[in-house]
Write a structure and sequence with these properties.
It contains five helices and two strands. By secondary structure, the protein is mainly alpha-helical. The chain has one domain (5-89).
């Protein structure tokens, strides 16, 4: 969840800068991320994709399509519209 585009986009809004052009990943800021509590059955597609990504990375393969699918699942989970997705990805 923390690696998806939506989390990165939102964290850029709420985080503080290190002064070197990067965000500071401070505990109290991470706790502000609105991570949905979903049933275990709804977590399975994410688990499957993460396992596939880990295996593909270990084999030196490109994981862009799999990572994009996780982003799509997260957008669905939060009910984002196409316009909102465009803002997040823009």
């Amino acid at each position: 969840m923390l690696n998806c585009q939506l989390s990165k986009w939102y964290f850029n809004l709420i985080s503080t800068s290190s002064g070197m052009g990067t965000n500071r990943w401070l505990k109290y800021k991470i706790e502000q991320l609105p991570i949905k509590d979903i049933p275990e059955s709804a977590q399975q597609p994410f688990i499957t994709l993460v396992d596939q990504i880990l295996a593909a990375k270990q084999a030196g393969e490109d994981t862009g399509a799999l990572e994009r699918r996780i982003d799509e699942l997260v957008y669905e989970l939060y009910g984002l519209t196409e316009e909102e997705i465009a803002v997040v990805e823009g």
